[in-house]
Amino acid sequence: MAALWKAVATLGLLLGAAQAQAEFVSIKGNQVNIRKAASTQSEVTWELTKGYPMKVTQKRGNWLKVKDFEGELGWVYKPLTQKTAHHIVKVPTANMRSGPGVQHKKLGTLQQHDLLKTLDKKNGWVKGQADNGQVGWISKKLLWGW
């Protein structure tokens, strides 16, 4: 029985490490095509704007198969991505605060799909810079990205 518990604990650690090492990229160009297949000849399924975070699920040469916070999949040409961390608001509205906690002053409100350049993370909160230049803290539960 002890061996079984040890195996379960080891598996849990391995799964946790795999999740922690998930690779993310963000869009580098102002308008980048996400395609149905790994080819410039493939149908464009969506266009994304600079900073949009994507989770990498597969690699094929210079192409990355990516997934967004809604689970949509597609292929993006790797040179059009960057390793600058970003988050996207995944809920209808999110309060931006002056510090990492609800006790801090509300600075403004962001809407679903608004992007933030990630500046810092602390205790389940993300400090980010919005497209309009405003900097503040938002609960990680309301965001997706890295």
Keywords summarizing the entry:
single chain, 146 residues, mainly beta, SH3 type barrels, 2 domains, 5-stranded antiparallel beta sheet, 14 strands, elongated
Structural class: mainly beta
Question: Can you identify the CATH superfamily of the largest domain?
Answer: SH3 Domains
Q: How many domain units?
A: 2
Report on the biggest sheet: 5 strands, antiparallel
Write the layout of secondary structure elements.
Blueprint: H1 2-20, E1 24-27, E2 31-35, E3 44-49, E4 53-60, E5 63-67, E6 73-77, E7 81-82, E8 86-89, E9 93-97, E10 106-111, E11 115-122, E12 125-130, E13 135-139, E14 143-145
Antiparallel strand pairs: 1-4, 1-7, 2-3, 4-5, 5-6, 8-11, 8-14, 9-10, 11-12, 12-13
What does this structure look like?
The model is unreliable at 4-20 (pLDDT under 50). The protein has a five-stranded antiparallel beta sheet, with no helix packed on it. Strands 13-12-11-8-14 form a five-stranded antiparallel beta sheet, with no helix packed on it. A hairpin with a 2-residue loop joins strand 4 and strand 5. With 146 residues, the chain is mainly β. It has one helix spanning 2-20; strands at residues 24-27, 31-35, 44-49, 53-60, 63-67, 73-77, 81-82, 86-89, 93-97, 106-111, 115-122, 125-130, 135-139, 143-145. The chain has two domains: 23-82, SH3 type barrels (Roll), CATH 2.30.30.40; 86-145, SH3 Domains (SH3 type barrels, Roll), CATH 2.30.30. It contains one helix and 14 strands, in the order αββββββββββββββ.
